[in-house]
Amino acid sequence: MIARAALKNQNNIFLKNKFYRHFKTSSENKILNQLKTLRGCDDIIGKEAEKHAFLKHNLAKIAQLYSYQPIETPIIESKDIFDRCLGSDSDVISKEMYVFNHMSENKIALRPEGTAGVVRAFINSHLNKPLPQKFYYYGPMFRYERPQKGRNRQFHQLGAEFIGGSTPLLDAESIAFASNMLSQLNLMNNVKLEINTLGDNESRTNYRGVLKKYFEDKINLMSIESKQRFERGSILRILDSKDPGDIEIINKAPNLYEFLTKDSLTQFNQVIECLQELEIKFNVNPHLVRGLDYYCHTVFEFIGCNSTNIPMGRQSTVLAGGRYDGLVKLFGGPDVSSIGWAAGIERLALMINDELLPKKTRPISVIIIQDKNNFGDINSDSDNNNTNNTNNTNNSLILKGLNISERIRKLNIPVIFNLSGSIQKQLKRATKDYNCQLGIIIGIKELEENIIKIKQFDNEIQNDYPLNQLEEIINQLYNNNNNDNNNL
Description:
- With 488 residues, the protein is an alpha+beta fold.
- It is built from 17 helices and 16 strands.
- The chain is elongated, with a radius of gyration of 30 Å.
């Protein structure tokens, strides 16, 4: 019978696990080692999974306030998309991206960031829709780099992209969106906002030439990473170095603001004015640059501070973004301005307080009192009457427990229905492991009299009730229990 087979399987699993814990062979250990996750790729489970789900829900809730719509793009794209977007000399392209040869001989890549895919999707699907277009997203990204706290080779980001607007007001709104999300996570006391402008193309071209000349006779005194950036022509990225020796040289470098065009300076001052109107605190950091080629004008970072859960310095950025006015055109689309940002979910998960997570609805445990006379002979094929009668009784109890469990779940109340172990063990698991509010106990007596025994774990009250009044009784006891807990 189905129920008997289920019970037999539960006991077999229990016995197998008990044996497996104590008598693992060396070959089994070897298999377990081979089945480990790859370096820098972690399973997300338990509390970590709850935090990820909460962060995604929080983003979606705030995104609705700013009229953003969800978007989901593939995790694999043509490598050419990222080459166009990130620049062939960027650190991501040159050192960190996972690239594969496809069967069609085209190279494909695991996405290292989210903006490129969103812009590609906009060009493919949304050109016939009115601007602006606003998108938010979350999902896994991939970069080959040394795993560290809050950043793996497979990591997760959430982000927002505004396509089709160039006014300083939109820069401020994008920053306000990010600030609002962090505020809802109670993180604004743990981050500081830094902003800067990279100006327009003319501003950056003029500044890049002066900066290159400044670094020429000093580059041999700088870090290997800065030397590599200088050799590749990524002059502006040298300003992003966190090496103490580099910083001393960078602090004496010419200031970008001296080379901004009048329009660029006016636009940045208007962004500052908007942020002041919104009472968003910030610091202007003239050395702030973003590590990707497509940025221009406003760039910003929320940097971790006053937190022991994330590293400081190079890896302290919690959320970052900026304006990328030429990227859509670079992809073959119209010449429209855009701005966006992204945040690492793992890093946010390290920072948020567990108390922010939604309280779990306490379940109800359905507990079966099986006939002990046949508990040890569940694998027996004996045909004697006592065994058959016991099997029939246990089968009826299991089916009744299954039926009751589903009736309660239809009331939108979670249920724990576990067949293994004695009634004492089941009661202990219900309270210690699952924090159940109520326990419904069914044995031979309850089955014969068509009743159920309900135990209220919080006050230890236990009574018998008619089974045909199950829904009415559960609603009454469960709701009262909920109200009592909310008043504690």
